Amino acid sequence: MEIEVLISFLLYMTLMVGIGFYFYFKTDDLSDYVLGGRGLGPGVTALSAGASDMSGWLLLGLPGMMYSDGLVGAWIAIGLFIGAYLNWHYVAKPLRVYTHYLNDAITIPDYFSNRFADKKNTLRVVTAIVILVFYTLYTSSGLVGGAKLFEATFNLDYSTALVVGSIIIVSYTFLGGYNAVSWTDFIQGILMMLALVITPLVVIFEIGGVSEALKIIEQTDVHKLDFISSSTIIGAISLMAWGLGYFGQPHILVRFMSIRDEDEMSRAKAIGMTWMGLSIIGSLAVGFFGFAYVVANGVDLQDSEKIFITLTQLLFNPWIAGFLLAAILAAIMSTIDSQLLVSSSVLTRDIYNAFLRKDASNKELVWVGRATVIGIAIIAWYLSTDRNSSVLQLVSYAWAGFGAAFGPLIILSLYNANITRSGAIAGMVAGSLTVIIYKQLEGGIFDLYELLPGFIIAWIAILVFSKFGEQASQEDKEIFKEVQQKLL
Question: Taking 80 as the threshold, does the pLDDT of residue 117 lie above it?
């Protein structure tokens, strides 16, 4: 490892921790810690949502898929782009208005509990359990990505790399809470986008142009140029189905809840979708054209998920390489910090404050939130100790779990006044169990990405069970109408 790379990394990490310290002194209550006091502008909202969404998957998992599978991997990008746009367009503003209107709900369990007048707090508990189970898997995927980065960059063994990466990420989340997470994600989002625009352009230039790259790929493995016939219908549908996951990701949904003014949401959408388009095209190009570069130069690449790391080390001088490699750390950190914070807020607000200490002070709740950040990180670290873990596989499982458990309920709760508490519980349970069970089955229709059947079954369960038991009260329907009128 060259000293310039180390210095670049240290400068970057110092900046991130410094932001955490800055917001440590500006965090006064739980709302500040878990939602930034609903004071974020459209730019920070958009880029922090995008950065926390994409994670290390954008610079490790997706390029690795394109490197291994070729153009067929682009189906996932199409599905994600459509899903993200629909989420911004149909969910973002209504959710911001509704959560503020319903007793200033600051977490997803808060919103569900208030939306369906759940005085028994059953919904709050079920939602919290789902979040904690799938976020533990999701966070471990980020820690695996961080360990791979430190392992490849600093020549550390996997276990040491895992510990180093975990300490850095947890530190500023622990200190600064939501504001620190959002502002670091904003910076990290810019860095990720620049890295994904610059790197494929340099790769193409080094190969000798797009036509030369395509020629190399065709001569090596012509199937990598096949966008349709090399994939089955089930494969293409599975990749496109990733887009459904957006509607249920708590770390993205809380970004919508935190914007300072719902009327700024359209600007945030424009910024967010532009960032996503540039970043995801760059990510696909890194893996696709990176394959041509590896073949042309006889590079021995053992792990396809390290293609971005390898290209960065081979093509750029150490100073630039250091900051480009820091973009991977940025991608990883921007998602883990959000996941840790959402999990922490659930344990603090929806378990500790709701059941154990209803009269806890704001200061006490903030410190409980910080303590739970460390606790969740330790569990995720333990799950990440297997060095053979795949970033993409871990992400896909957690993404499907959240998308199926919460996605249909988020949409229906915003657009259907007749959804009930029973329907909400049935939908979350059905969606979660379908993902878990479907994941264990293989062959034929069971090769379909588990998110799609989970989403459909959860949607049906919500509608069916809302027909039975206690119906939505007239008061709930009046509140629903008031919110809808406010959105006009």
Answer: yes
SS3 407: helix
Predicted TM-score (pTM) of this structure: 0.81
The structure tokens listed for 48 are 């922090």
Name beta bridge partners: 40. Answer: 259
φ and ψ at 112, to 5 degrees? -60, -45
Domain encompassing residue 271 = 3-392
d(CA 273, CA 104) in angstroms, rounded, equals 27
Structure tokens at 413: 């709760």
Q: Which of 39-48, 338-347, 466-475 has the lowest mean pLDDT?
A: 338-347
247 located within any domain: yes
Q: Collapse the DSSP code of 299 into the 3-class scheme (helix H, G, I; strand E, B; otherwise coil) and give the result.
A: coil
Give the chain's domain count. Answer: 1
State the residue for tokens 């153009």: 71
The confidence score (pLDDT) of residue 174 equals 59
* Spatial distance between the Cα atoms of 249 and 139, rounded to a whole number of angstroms: 13
Residue at 80: amino acid letter: L
Count of CB atoms within 10 A of residue 445's CB? 9
Residue 115, domain CATH: 1.20.1730.10
Q: Is residue 439 part of a domain?
A: no
Residues contacting residue 459 through CB under 8 Å, at least 6 positions apart: 408, 412, 427
> DSSP for 225-283?
G-SSTTS-HHHHHHHHGGGGGGGG-HHHHHHHHHBS-GGGHHHHHHHHHHHHHHHHHHH
Q: Is residue 136 part of a domain?
A: yes
Quickly state the pLDDT bin for 455 (edges 50, 70, 90): very high
* pLDDT class of 28 with cuts at 50, 70, 90: low
pLDDT at 106 over 90: no
Is residue 71 within 8 A of residue 226, CB to CB? The reply is yes
Using only the alpha carbons of the chain, give its radius of gyration: 22
At residue 129's C-alpha, the angle toward residues 126 and 130, to 5°, is 90
Return d(Cα 230, Cα 414) in angstroms, integer: 40
